[in-house]
Amino acid sequence: MTEESLKFPVIGSDALKATFRAHASGVAVITSHDDDGNPIGFTATSVTSLGSNPPLVSFNIARGSSSYPQLVIGREVALHALSAKNLALAQRMAGPKEDRFTQEDFELVGNVPVFKSAASVLIGKVRERFEVEANAVVILDILYGTEPFERERPLVYYQRGYLTATERLAENS
Amino acid sequence: MTEESLKFPVIGSDALKATFRAHASGVAVITSHDDDGNPIGFTATSVTSLGSNPPLVSFNIARGSSSYPQLVIGREVALHALSAKNLALAQRMAGPKEDRFTQEDFELVGNVPVFKSAASVLIGKVRERFEVEANAVVILDILYGTEPFERERPLVYYQRGYLTATERLAENS
């Protein structure tokens, strides 16, 4: 693609993957618990606000994931926004399931594990799940949250790797 | 919040806003056309992949926005992933509606305006809309896309401003 000509040579899922490699996303960790009260959680790059009145959040998940059956309507969930210093947490929660909760770096809020080092944490409840093909959009009602740490650098996922953003280009007017 | 104590002093929408200031997001521009064929478009920080088989994208929008009634099922949509060099485009498409398409920097694909300078572009169609309170999650079927520019720096929205990410912390293993 150049400025002079506009071409669309990439088809379907290859096009999706190519463009999303070129699209940055924030990195979050979502935690909850299973029916037996055991902690579950995973790294997610699809967390986004869905309006503030009432406060709602959405994220996307594969219906085939082991976490999806646990995210039933009403289930309490913690959503952790991550900064650059949380890189190891992001990697751990995207790695083998048996390693995710072996470190003593979380507290239980009810049965929900909350990582204290996260830049900011929201507690919510699953409100609704919209299933689309093999995936689902999960909607959370947000109940309450922490005071975010100040002066963090964000953790960003881009081009299949983790980055941080330090160069400020413009303020929102 | 400190590492020693976990407190949740912020309630509801204030909590949502506080945490999402601490959560980075990529910046995209979504364009389409109205029933009369006139271009519409806006800057969005909620664009995320919803699975690649079939290729699906979701984004969130206020149902009260002027664009929402135009994003009917089947409507063709262009999704532009933005890099740091697209800052002015991101700002323009978040600014006054009458200024958004006055520059000759887009081509029409069918009736959909496509900005040629964007880091990568996907063309899709509205598949489904899930309405939740005053907002909606819009699902796109992805049809095809451009070859992304290589070696761009991403455009990131964080703490109410635009940043770019240059410091690479880790590759995804």
Account of the protein in words:
The structure is a homodimer of 173-residue chains. In chain A, strand 5 and strand 6 form a beta hairpin. Chain A has helices at residues 12-21, 87-93; strands at residues 10-11, 25-26, 28-33, 39-44, 48-52, 55-62, 76-81, 106-109, 112-115, 120-132, 135-145, 155-158, 161-171. Chain A has 2 helices and 13 strands. The first copy, chain A, is 10% helix and 47% strand. In chain A, the strands form 3 sheets. A 7-stranded antiparallel beta sheet of chain A has the order 4-3-7-10-11-6-5, with helices on one face. In chain A, strands 2-12-13 form a 3-stranded antiparallel beta sheet, with no helix packed on it. The longest helix of chain A has 10 residues, at 12-21. Chain A is mainly beta and 173 residues long. The model of chain A has no long low-confidence stretch (mean pLDDT 94). The radius of gyration of chain A is 17 Å and the shape is globular. At the A-B interface, strand 1, helix 1, strand 2, strand 5 and strand 6 of A face strand 1, helix 1, strand 2, strand 5 and strand 6 of B.
Shape field of chain A = globular
List unreliable stretches of 5+ residues of chain A. Answer: none
The helix/strand class of chain A is mainly beta
Count of helices of chain A? 2
Strand content of chain A: over 45%
The greatest interface here is: A-B, 93 and 94 residues
